[in-house]
């Protein structure tokens, strides 16, 4: 319980890939018998269907029809739909360990995963792995397939990148670490070209990173970095935050989801050479209050004061912000 492998097996069980209308059974017995021959070719949708059996096309309709009891929920992922349809058209591909060869993209979101164990290495073709909204506090790079290009670990409990950076997948292009517990100054050293030579996109949003100068000095070593998300970190409160990053990382195309245009680069040109301005022990926070409920209307009291001979009544309010 709590391991990636256990969560994946539970996920497969939930998809019911071995039950009707998927897999092999009495509903497609002739196809099952044909596959016993080593020379048999996979049957197509146009193959004649014996009496009492269901064609692959008819069983696909049962999966796709929203009124069918076998249909997947409307909010199911493309991955769920793919596996169910493969289990209809070519169930032998999902038999035993073969299932690990089919998937190039895998999503286990909000499945209670606490540990990324060695079972992940069975996915020898895996290119994209999404493990968001779990309880992962540590990722050992030796447990990650070397074929990975996308790794998303957002909304977990990661506080240290050391184990992840021992020998990470060399071809990784996107790393998603938003909404974790990363804090400086020890984590910046793990975000260099030594670990991520092919990284194009990096999401570090909503962590506790504070040292902008050190972080930029490390990120500047990433030769292919084009997309960066840092919003939600304390360092993003520095007044010169965006301008400093735009001028310091000339290859960056998007910062916090906003495209960097040439005129913006020109406006902030030279700011990277003035780091002293960033060392000010202050930050800028702008708070706008659009509406407040449950408070007396000042206009009503003003009218009472005009018509009344009683003493003047005043009210005062204050708002507290905790950071």
Automatic annotation (TrEMBL):
Keyword tags: Leucine-rich repeat, Repeat
- The keyword GTP-binding belongs to this UniProt entry's keyword annotation: no
Domain of life, per UniProt, equals Eukaryota
Recorded GO cellular component terms are: cytoplasm
Q: Would the keyword Chaperone be found if you checked this record's keyword annotation?
A: no
Q: What is this protein called?
A: LRC43 protein
